[in-house]
Amino acid sequence: MKRLVARFFILLSIPIVLFIAFLVYMSITDVNPEPIIPLTTEANEGSIAQINTPISIITFNIGYGGLDQAQDFFMDGGTMSRSSSEDQTWTNLEQMGKFLHEQNSDLIFLQEVDIKSSRSFHIDQKEYFSNLLSDYSSTFGMNYQVKWVPVPVTKPMGAVHSGVVTLSKFFTDSSSRYQLPGKEKWPVQLFELDRCFIENRVPVENGKELVLVNVHLSAYDEGGLIRKQQLDFLKEYMIEEYERGNYLIVGGDWNHVIPGTDQSVFETTEDTPFWVQSLPGDFTPEGFTWGSDITVPTVRNNAFAYQPGVNFVSVIDGFLVSPNVEIAEVYAVDLGFEHSDHNPVLGIFILME
């Protein structure tokens, strides 16, 4: 009987020991980026920016090539964490790439671009877009690098290496990755993103700099404390850059409802998801202007596959510019969420004297 009891407790302890070993391994391999990391801009050949001349920019969260209209996502209330197939991932990437190529904009801000992730069949998406759009330079900033994400349990997300990419037809003087503040508590933080924004500094003909910021803020933190820290950090950064006399264009996936938009105008039967928050009224620096399209939603909720008029939709992608930048036009393109859970937003901006 004693032997049976001992064997029982040994068998019972095995999963506990394995779980502890897993957490130790994840803690050892956890990535802790420095506050500011210089980045390399590949194929950095282009012109300097001109004043009083239109500059076109697209921002597009590509959903790692896996969040097409047939997909759901476990963090939004669904069950999936990976693309449905490698073939579908390629289809999504190719169709989004075709759209970007046709637009021929001066700059492209991409979010959720995988380098080598289980969820997207280890396709190097940065390399794909860099090769497809070969007349652009390319800057990559990591914001998610985890050896193994063990949820959902039935089909875990697995290994993730992902980030944001800025493609540019302008010459970049320097580029940097800025770590955004705020982290979840251990051990949850081991499996979360290391949120950042990447900065590209473009020389302007009048001796100033055009500071381009590609951002992807947090979405799921309970209580909003992490979001507040990130927004406070970003606001201070923007004010400092403008006070230096530079031009500033910030674009990307804000994961907040863009000021001036109204999600109630969009037809939906789904309740507002828990992650939807509005930007605080005091966030926008004095004189800065938002560029968004109030008529086309830029994101859908992923609790279930996309059904027009059913899924919750809102506007969380767009631009914020300094007072010395004129917004000539901003519009979203309704792609029906066919190949990503976001729609792209296009902006045309003019640097004023």
Ends: how far apart?
88 Å
Oligomer: single chain
Structural class: alpha+beta
Give the domain tally: 2
Describe this structure in words.
- By secondary structure, this protein is of the alpha+beta class.
- The chain has two domains: 1-30; 34-351, Endonuclease/exonuclease/phosphatase (Deoxyribonuclease I, Chain A), CATH 3.60.10.
- The chain is 21% helix and 29% strand.
- The chain is built from four helices and 16 strands.
- The chain has helices at residues 2-29, 86-103, 125-132, 225-243, and strands at residues 36-39, 41-42, 54-61, 107-114, 137-149, 158-168, 174-179, 196-203, 209-216, 247-253, 289-291, 299-300, 313-314, 317-321, 325-332, 345-351.
- A seven-stranded mixed β-sheet has the order 1-7-8-9-10-14-11, covered by helices on one side. The protein has a seven-stranded mixed β-sheet with strand order 2-5-6-4-3-16-15, with helices on one face.
- Strand 3 (54-61), helix 2 and strand 4 form a beta-alpha-beta unit.
- The mean pLDDT is 95.
Give the key terms.
alpha+beta; Deoxyribonuclease I, Chain A; 2 domains; 4 helices; seven-stranded mixed sheet; 353 residues; globular
Blueprint (SSEs and pairs):
Elements: H1 2-29, E1 36-39, E2 41-42, E3 54-61, H2 86-103, E4 107-114, H3 125-132, E5 137-149, E6 158-168, E7 174-179, E8 196-203, E9 209-216, H4 225-243, E10 247-253, E11 289-291, E12 299-300, E13 313-314, E14 317-321, E15 325-332, E16 345-351
Parallel strand pairs: 3-4, 9-10
Antiparallel strand pairs: 1-7, 2-5, 3-16, 4-6, 5-6, 7-8, 8-9, 10-14, 11-14, 12-13, 15-16
